[in-house]
Each structure stands twice: as C-alpha cells, then as structure tokens.
Amino acid sequence: MIKIHSQHHSSDSGFGNKLFLSCFAECYAIETKQKLFNWLVTDILHGGSHRDGISKKDNVNVEWKHLDVDIDAQEQFSVVGVNTTLSTNSFHQSPDDIALMKKYKNLVVEDFGRRDGVFVHVRAARLRSEHVPSVEYYKSCLRDSFFGYLSSDDPEDDRVKYLLDNFNLKLYEETPEKTMIFASMFEHKVLSLGAFSWWIGFVGNQNNIMCPYPKDYQVWHGEIFEPMTEWNMIRKPYEKNN
Question: CA–CA separation, 6 vs 90, rounded Å?
Fold first, then answer.
C-alpha cells in the first residue's frame, strides 16, 4: 500500500506540488501493483474526485481522501513525500519521477480537449529576477497574431500589465485547479518556472509549449523542466529572438 505524506506542507506549497505527490503515487501504484491509501481530490487525475474514500483537509485546507483502513497497522507500506525512499526529492520532482509520470500519463492524467489560441502564465515578481523571467522572455514567445489568456498570482505585476496592454490577451482569474484545466487545452502555452506552470504544460495539448531554459535561473524546485525535451526551451538573451 502507498501512503502520501499529505499533511504539514508549508503555507506556500501550492497546488502544483500536491499534484506531483498524488500523480507520482498513482503512477507508482500502477508500476508496482499496489493500492493507494490516500490521494488528492482533483479532476486533473483519473479517479481523483470520483474514487470513494474518507475526506480530510490538509493544513492549508486542500481536500484529500483516504481508505477506511489503519495504515499504520499495515506490515509494510511505501511513503510518497516527506521521508520517502522512492525519490531524491521530497515532492517527487526528479528526472526519474518525471519519467515514471510520463510512462503512465495517459492512464493517470485527464485530457480536457483542444482550443485555439495561447495561454500565458506569469509567475509573481515577488521572487527575485534571478528566479523568474523578465517581460522580454514573454515578448520573445508571443506573436501579434496570437490571441488568448494570461494568468498570474499577481495581476498587478508590471509584466502582466505590459502584456495585457500590448498583446491580444485577457486576464483569466480562477482557482488554481480550474486555471490549470483551462490552460491545458490551448494550442500554444507560454510557461514560467515553478510546479504550477509545469503542470499547465504537462496536462493536455503538447503542440507548442514554450518555457524558460531553467539553467538560466536559480530555480527553487526540482529538475522538472529538464526532462521535457519535447518543449521549446527559450534561452537568454531573449532580445535576440524578437
């Protein structure tokens, strides 16, 4: 049986990190023919919302479900998350973890269809410039012919204002899960760094995904972009691409 360490995440541990835990656990369960003890309640993963279980909120009010069994009484169980022995990263954000999720993606991750246009994700500027791309990165990815939507955890960010003023984009504001589902469908995706942006790229349409080259930045997450060799990694200096 597989148990996800779903409690006591830091307050800034977002939806993307929790998806990594649950998706890896789902894939590992298939790989090893084990049962899941608990899982994230989400429409993004098959069975995440519809599988029967006992509901419980974690310390940041995100819903999980678990089986009606005493997991600690089990003779043996695998741990996903903190104190795991299954990965070098406690959020399962290593190249080996990504490889397993790619292997079983079609069995585990929902596909929400296709739509024309572009979806842009801008990570908040509260992170320093060495962590997030400048507006020049987005300008190098976007074309005047593109139309679509932009999402950010800080709509007042100067980069957000510039992109909304100068490109055919509308601000999209919804819950993290609904944003991820909506964004996943677009023909073109312009990502930032971080787990949330990675999931926008991983779910759904794979036709034209653009992301910053992670080695140009001081990333705060695991090696999640490096294994996505099918994505278009945009390198600095961005101005030469305009």
Answer: 11
At 76 the pLDDT is 80
The answer, yes or no, to whether residue 9 has pLDDT greater than 60, is no
Q: What is the pLDDT of residue 151?
A: 97
- Contact between 187 and 115 under an 8 Å Cβ cutoff? The reply is yes
Report which of 131, 135, 192 is spatially closest to residue 163, judged by C-alpha positions.
135
Put simply, whether the predicted model's pTM sits higher than 0.90 gets the answer yes
Q: How confident is the model at residue 241 (pLDDT cuts 50, 70, 90)?
A: low
Running DSSP on this structure, what letter comes out for residue 174? -
Q: Which domains does the chain have, with CATH numbers?
A: 2-108 (no CATH), 115-241 (3.40.50.2000)
Q: What is the rounded distance in angstroms from the CA atom of residue 229 to the CA atom of residue 241? A: 20
65 DSSP β-pair partners: 39, 55
* Range list of β-strands (E), 104-239: 115-122, 147-152, 168-171, 186-190, 208-212, 232-234
